[in-house]
Amino acid sequence: MFDQTHEARLFQPLTLPNGQIIPNRIAKAAMEENMADRGQLPGAALLGLYRQWGAGGAGMILTGNVMVAADAVTGPGGVVLDARQPQDPFRDWAAAGNAHGARMWMQINHPGRQVFAGTNPEAIAPSAVPVEMGRFSKLFTQPRAMTEDDIDRVIGQFATTAELAEKAGFDGVEIHAAHGYLLSQFLSPLTNRRTDQWGGTLENRARIVIEIVRAVRARVSQDFGVGVKLNSADFQKGGFDVADAAAVVRLLNRQAVDLVEISGGSYESPAMHGRPQQQAKRASTARREAYFLDFAREIVAVAEMPIMVTGGIRSRATAEHALAPEDCRPGVAMVGIAQALAYAPDLPNRWKLAEDAVQLPSIRWKSSLASLATMALTKLQLRRMGRGKPPTFRAWAPGVLVRDQLRTRRLNRNYRRWLAHRG
Ligand SMILES: Cc1cc2nc3c(=O)[nH]c(=O)nc-3n(C[C@H](O)[C@H](O)[C@H](O)COP(=O)(O)O)c2cc1C
Asked: What ligand 1 atom has the least distance to the C-alpha of 313?
């Protein structure tokens, strides 16, 4: 077992299995910015944003998810990296993030069925199972089941994007196999109804993830980092659970994987933004805050690579608690922080000097719009940072959500035009 407890303190470096050194245990977790420039490329706004994070003190910076396929995007302002994209904008992006010594990793993703009909009218998925979100279901594209050729193509697309990321100066890639996107759709029995070698047993459902890790490894250098973001569970009846997650990590142990990040949920069950039902009053503050920590500790017990937990971390005390052993169970090797770094990009530097917590605006709506509004408010901060402005804590959520939808419509038109011209 990888020694997760050894000197597991916030500002001590971490050496990954491939020898790459991460200066400290804090990662800026992936946040889809939806801020791509023309041509679905990183531009001035993204560079401005990543310069701030690069100077903020996190040891690792994960980009928001970058699309491996031009015709399947999580949002119309998403960055696409395939063989037809120019390299220079990606070089600039990598340099913006790692200028102060942080390791800059690109998260790479295929959304599968989680695409909006207004953006991508066609979608592929392991099986033709559409997203089920009540009255919002019709916003999503009905997927078709992937053929063997589709599966081969997607494996190749992940490998190509990873290779290009390395050429552009990134230090690693994180393969997104969580949050209900394509690879997580393969892992979950609810969305993977296949009866061939890509479905059925857990080993079959995990095959595509393993094949992608292998294909990526074959195309990058040994010291380039390869990580996987995995759900601890999808929090749906009959879905992927923590025992499945542990089994997938056992399979990943046999591959050259440098880091596994633990999260949870999907669009249908957005647990990644907090799970109030889990927050029993008797749980300690740290456990209430870092809501996947108990799951992550279970994964640490079987993992041979370092484990990172993401979700709910706002204070230094919680981050340190996650790294420390508890009840004879080792802590995690790294903590991932998303939203708090959208409101305080220099939080790691502040933590070096003192305990400091960020209070995020909380949205208490009951509907599934709450998760969308949380994302919209956070993305507003990212766009402000991209323009050199400070975050705002006073934005009115319904207004931000509506403006976000209007912006998405405009971006949809630009994206579809770009895709059509590309041919
Ligand atoms: C605006 C926004 C965009 C996100 N985009 C991504 C993404 O591209 N990839 C990903 O793995 N997670 C994404 N997430 C989830 C975060 O990485 C993280 O798992 C989640 O926000 C919980 O961590 P936190 O409490 O520190 O924010 C996103 C979250 C937010 C708020």
From this structure: 26
pTM of the predicted structure, to 2 decimals: 0.95
265 alpha carbon – ligand 1 mean position (Å): 11
**Closest ligand 1 atom, residue 107 Cα:** 9
Decide: 262 and 227 in contact? Cβ < 8 Å.
no
The CA-to-CA distance between both ends of the chain, in Å, stands at 49
Residues in Cβ contact with 33 at an 8 Å cutoff, skipping those fewer than 6 apart? 46, 49, 64, 77, 379, 382, 383, 386
- pLDDT tens column, 377-419: 999 999 999 999 999 988 999 999 999 999 999 999 999 999 9
**Is the domain defined by 14-362 classed in CATH 3.20.20.70?**
yes
Could you report the per-residue pLDDT of 111-157, keeping only the tens digit for each? 999 999 999 999 999 999 999 998 889 999 999 999 999 999 999 99
Ligand 1 contacts (CB < 6 A) are 29-32, 64-65, 107, 176, 178-179, 229, 263, 272-273, 310-313, 337-340, 374-375, 378-379
* Interval between CA 337 and ligand 1 midpoint (Å): 8
CA of 239 to the centre of ligand 1 (A): 21
**CB proximity list for 316: less than 8 A, separation 6 or greater:** 10, 351, 355, 356, 357
Residue nearest to ligand 1 atom 2, measured at CA: 31
